[in-house]
Request: fold
Amino acid sequence: MPFIPHTDKDIQKMLSTIGVQSIDELFSEIPSQLRSKPLDAVPEGLSEMEMMRLMQERAEQDAGALCFIGAGAYEHHIPAAVWDVASRGEFLTAYTPYQAEASQGTLQLVYEFQTMMCELTGLDVSNASLYDGASGLAEAVLMSIRANRKSKSKKVLVAGSLHPTYKKVVEDIVSNQGIELDELSVDYASMSIDHASLNEFEGNDYAAVVIPQPNFMGTLEDVNTLTNWAHDNGFLVIGVVNPVSLALIAPPGEWGEAGADIAVGEGQPLGIPLASGGPYFGFICCKSKLVRQLPGRIIGRTVDLEGKEGFTLTLQAREQHIRRSKATSNICTNQGLAVTAATIFMTMVGFEGLSRVAKACHANAFALTEKLKNIPGVKLRSPAAFFHEFVIEIDAGSKQVLEFMAEEGILAGFDVSTCSPELSNCVLVCVTEVKTNADLELFVASLSRAIEDRGEV
Amino acid sequence: MLIFEKGCTGRFATSQAPKVAAEVTGISDDFLRKSPAKLPQVSELQAVRHFTNLSRKNFSIDTQFYPLGSCTMKYNPRGAHRAASLPGFLSRHPLAPESHSQGYLACVYDLQQVLKEVTGMSGVSLCPMAGAQGEFAGVAMIKAYHEAREDFDRCEIIVPEAAHGTNPATAVMCGYKVREIPVKSCGDIDLDALKLAVGPQTAGIMMTNPSTCGVFERQIEEIAKTVHDAGGLLYYDGANLNAILGKVRPGDMGFDVLHMNLHKTFATPHGGGGPGSGPVAVGDRLLPYLPTPIVGCDESESSVKRYHWVEEADMPNSIGRLSAFMGNAGIILRAYIYATLLGREGLHRVGEFSTLNANYMAKLMSNAGFDLAYKDRLATHEFIITMSRQSKEMGVTAMDFAKRLLDFGYHAPTTYFPLLVPECLLIEPTETESIDEIEGYVAAMVAIQKEAEASADSLKGAPFNQSVRRLDDVKAARELDVAYSAE
Reply:
């Protein structure tokens, strides 16, 4: 029996100790008319060997493409040791560290993670993680409504340049509590928030404004001006950031005069594989005065009864298992293992390594934009101030060109033409440090062939 | 020692980053970071050694019997971890076109089918990234259902007092008020109280069955009828699904919507606090509201199956999206692989052997003189003992027993939950533990009881041989230190 160790002798001993004739008798409190029939729709079990064969076939079906898609999930080099260590059974198969004395490994690691995220974002406190960047932003929005005591409205202002799926997820989650979102418009010439439209929102009551950096199109927003403007109007600032970019560009804690109040984002670039979209992890950091409104687990350093340093879950009075209906969120389980990997990743590369990664991403992306300038029918829509993603417009048609290139094994980018009429025939292209000059040449050659192919149609 | 206290300025794992720092062009100084973040500065070996040594300070399923009630800490097959980590799965971008995703989509589709069958429901969405998010999706669907019928007065969710804390917290996240109803001394819901509680304001009820009291709710059919007659829907919290897998299905009990915890019932690793995965399944009434994306399948004449995404455009009444992509894909893969290894026969055995183990362990505990909270009932996959007597007579609490168990090399059971049983320990052995571990655990409890009888005070200091002694939680909260600073 797979994973069930009982021998016939064990079963007999157990049944006679309990005082029943059969295992079935243990279910006698369930009304008999409810008892389930055989699960015919489930196939018969496979051995591990058979299962591995099936899964290898399926995995190979999806393998092998050269990928330039980003749009919220980014391919980076992951040191071999990261997942070797994170996959140790002691990390992989432990539970949430409720019994602190039996969980010091995970607890100390998360304390170290919290410290690293505070350092990267320039803020004071971090939690132990949320599910992912998008749902993490929804938690940040809910948090801002609780935290901004001066705001009476249940409204939050969101940059139109935010990732459209993030915006959708936030809407779908917070609308259940009657929270409304208004949108700052985008200037598609600069591929960033339209500063000329800001005055429309002045004097209105918003709990917070959500500012992405870099934004969905890859462009760097003028976060200093935006942060000062938001604070002048009494809005909290929620920065949505890429953690790798923070080794190169200014962290949320240093935006404008006072810094952003909350930073949130997708932690995947820190050592987590693309893996079809998860498990990733969301991170959230804030100024210390907002700590009691943070959702999720927080680890604190303390001492044991002999005065020795130790780590434990803290501020649990915010959480669902204590506060029930008055909790800051219903979240309990988060993304511990992904955080374990990210902590090992950040430790290994250090700030110097991470900043080299960030610079190489930017330099490679910039190099590809230079090469694309020579292809007729391709226009670079992004201004120079981007991190590692940019938008190109393809006259020959984004959908058809992407399909042609995919058939050649190149996933050239994410089709953003449906995101806005202003982005018709546009593709969001991402280049990270893993791409070589030869990869970029393959991209250019395939794109040229695709356009040529379209020209002949 | 913290990682920040090791290493020295300028050190890092040099082979893990580009050899030279590239030049930055096109970004003005205003946008650039001014000072470095103080990340660790250690070698690759120092990093590996630090975290390997930290791991050894954890209890885990791989190293200890871990009978944490309501958490289903069963063996996590390494085969599932290995297969889900195949390069083709790890390197697939979530936005890759369907033409480059057929292998992954096939696994997702197949798991949807398995979960529909084992729950007796009509549709499944694998999007929710944890049990609590599954609960959120489920209650949001209940809300969407009532609103679509313009039944706007339903503002209350009923929750039994034994419920997990996530249930009331979820109801509030969905904009509902919570009404708690009592549980009788036999562990079943107080049906009279339920009948008084339901009305035109009732949106639904959230229940686990078996309940967190470790017993099967025998009146489930009458509960379903009472709530349905009042116009409400029934939500099944799948935290305890392991107990009944292959024995009774939530759909057949009358539930309209449920979430499952793949990290419990389907043996995916808990990872020290996630990632989990909390798929939702619904009956016909709630089908249009499932969160997206879902995977569909066209079986063409050529008998080659083509899998595709079903998005919100195809399901306009969906409650929408819960994550940037589609939930915890890697956990979904592991659960699919686990179901594939077990097959239909194996899934039937899960409920059987988890229940056999719990009843055997409960009987041994009872024979050894411990007090079962529900001694006249059959245990399900878990059971509760209460330490009230020990607490009154000797001043030794459930927490003292829990902490001392660690010294015997066993993880503590769930302590002080459910809240309605005083001084309780909720114990769930799971089906993957052998009789040897179960008997060893009971022997440890007996030994601790003898220690308590000899000297109650001695247990107050437990644990004694872990990396730390009992920790000062009050200091942790009062003198908040949640990030290291060298100053």
Residues 80-345 of chain A form a domain with the Aspartate Aminotransferase; domain 2 fold (CATH 3.40.640.10). Chain A touches chain B through 206 residues (CB under 8 Å). The longest helix of chain A spans residues 336-372. Chain A has twelve helices and 17 strands.
